[in-house]
Amino acid sequence: MKPGEHPLTAFENFMEGIWKQNPVFVMVLGMCPTLAVTVSAINALGMGVATTFVLVFSCLLVSAIRNWVPKEVRIATYIVIIASFVTVVDYAIQALSLDLYEALGAFIQLIVVNCIILGRAEAHASKHPPLTAVVNALGMGIGFTIGLFALGSVREIFGAGSLFGIALFGPSFQPWIVMLLPPGGFFVLGAWLLLFAGWKQRKEAKDGA
Fold this sequence. Notes:
This protein has helices at 10-20, 31-36, 41-64, 74-96, 98-104, 115-123, 130-160, 182-208, and strands at 162-163, 166-167. The protein is mostly helical and 209 residues long. Strand 1 (162-163) and strand 2 form a beta hairpin.
């Protein structure tokens, strides 16, 4: 916290990752899984929940041991902690849903190097008590999940004519196959970024009036 700034309330700390610092729509982080796995709403939610779990528990542990970890090995320690929880998630998803596990593929293991998680551990959890770190991590994880779902639902609706595998349109509907391909991911992400930026700009203009 900078000199002269007031500490965030628990609600502001939680909402920071959902609105002001949303990982997808504001900080534009974690783009690899964001674009790769969001071909359906269920894949998006699966990756979002998995990332949130790792984020919350890794930040909790990083915060709990922050005063005992030497500065020289802090990054290596954070990576080991994150990798441990990713392993738990990897086996849990494999046991609960083999279809989801195969759909997410290597991106489950790549949560280890997700800059959102390592960034929260270094920039926030290592400097705040456990409860504050968990609240912030939970908000950031939910914000990331919302971002993934926003992309996944749009791409599935237009690319497959369904949502969560349930058909929404009649047999005459022609799916936009491009939505299930990489260009479709970039197109939908760009549209959401434009919408989110315009919404935020109007809100700031209204607040400043």
